[in-house]
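Re: your question from the hallway

Yes, I did run it. Sequences:
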Amino acid sequence: MTVKLDNVGENVIKKHMKKNIAIKVENLSKQYRLGEIGTGTLSHDLNRFYAKIRGKEDPYSIVGQTNDRTVSAESDYVWALKDINFEVEQGEVLGIIGRNGAGKSTLLKLISQITAPTTGTIKAKGRIASLLEVGTGMHPEMTARENIFLNGAILGMTKKEIKAKFDEIIDFAGCQLYIDTPLKRFSSGMRVRLGFAVAAFLEPEILIVDEVLAVGDAEFQKKAIGKMKDISAGGGRTVLFVSHNMASVKSFCNKGILLVNGHIEFMGDVDLTVSKYLLGSSQNLNLKQFNNEFDHELFSFKEIRISATDKTTIEPLTEYDEISVETVLHIFKNEESLQLTYVLKNESGEPIFTFSHKKNKIKLKKNLNRLICKFPKGFLNIGSYYLDAYLIKDSRETIFLEKDIISFNIQEGLRPLGSWMGKEPGIIKPIFEWSIENN
Amino acid sequence: MNNQWDIIIQPKRSVFDINLKQLYKYKDLLFLFVKRDVVTIYKQTILGPIWFFVQPILTMVIYVFVFGNIAKISTDGIPQPLFYLAGIVMWNYFAESFNQTADTFTQNANLFGKVFFPRLIVPLSKVISALIKFVIQFLLFLALYLYFLYSSTVIQPSYLIILLPLLLLLMAGLGLGFGLIFSSLTTKYKDLKFLIQFGVQLLMYATPIIYPLSTIPENYQFWIKLNPITHIIETFKTIFLGSGQFSTNGLLYACVFTLFTLVFGVLIFNKTEQKFMDTV
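Structure:
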């Protein structure tokens, strides 16, 4: 009980303390030019200059369209980011998520001063170090020792600081043996380790990290995430983290921003942001019908529906239902070796299992096929799930792949009154066969 | 209210907003870049730094053969090898400073796209690397010079030798200034890249490197003297060979010209570095 009281006390104190903002982003926008920069560049420049000397506004800043890649270009300019406003408190770890091209990298580039914004300001307290890539500027002909100094200096450390941390860096990278060997003799994995080691011992107030953890082996990734957690927790440093790996965003960040087509779609608690992202990326409808989006010379993907058996797709799915996954495939040729395979993923995008009809000796025939797969009652726990669809030929060749083709939610079922209402731990909760022997 | 922030990023910096304090903070990086340039050029070569000598010696030999013996261009009575080497060594310093800095943005786009540091560090480091190369080549010149100083009587060193540091500064300043201007412009207009290649070569012929200024007809002298490098080279030749046409006004003109080029170069570079990643 005392623990809880302490927590309450702390919250009260936190509320009364003035918020310590580390980064403040106001009305930030970034415009890019579409198409080739070549002919026309000079004429646009001259137009701009002419407007400027007459004291008028930049004639091309008005015409930009939003960064929605599904519509065709109406003007030569596009807003990669439009009117971004947010604040990051000191010590916060902010995850920035969004689909490819949503503006994540542009945002990081603006904050790390690689390119200037078109409008708006960014204000920050302390030193900003950006890790958009590990081992930037390292030279293959120079030794590991020389490269540590060079890379450290590029990232903003002084020689003295690097010297003080040198042994730790070597230790973290685990390359004592190769310290005087030219970098070109290193394996690519070792280079990444060395690069990350240098960055890990930077001591900036604000650290910007862009998917650098996607490289390296599992052991290294674990080490790197651990180190980053230490940095943010121990040093009270602010971290901005961009990743497509929702599991690492969730485990590492405490706040999230969801970017969609260059604007902030959602901002708040990281779990909420991640589930918004995952829901947004595939529409949360239990029935999806396709016209000819997924046509192929061998087949046409017509429909996919997920429902509780014998119920419509509008009714919610609960933890106690038997779940049917129905797929309608139009096959054009008699191709018996075709096999439909699904990968079921949880809200973090982690695959849970793969299932197909291969073992059931069901074969797809010419014309319309309605394939039905049933998950036993109570098999899936509460949560959001995603399906990746694959069509495999001859058990080896993937001829069709659509990630997150459909998503669905499993809700709480009607539980007996008075019983506990939360989500039990675990992704699945299968009903096993139990027996008891009473003597 | 704004002074509580350490970094403020805005769309447009004022033209004159150059952060010298920040530049100074990165001085270690400057020297590490210089070290990288010098150390890595001749890694895995057998002759190593001797290559620094090979280029000017071979160039000199060719000049002696082509311009001295075939074209029979006067050298004002100065021994041909010494006359040409003096010009080559000085010219190389300018050409190296200019060539190495002129593609700063395009050459380092990858690095600049990932990390922020004052971009000016890169061209500065190139000029310092060029200076190191110059010093080595200058030693070669000095060796040849001392040999001719003792073996012939035509060479008269001048007390003007105190001007040597100024000459180097001017050469570096011009190379850097032009380099900064061109590197900024090439981010958008790549046409200039082709201009640079033969532009440097053409400029060399417009500078009294392979001929003495005194052989130029009166009516062309004005145009040759418009080239600020002419005055730097002539002063250098006056200092060591006693054969150049030193003029205080000419050198003063070179100083002013260099200062303008450099200031303009730094300003345009500073403006370009903010957004070049979008166009490069």
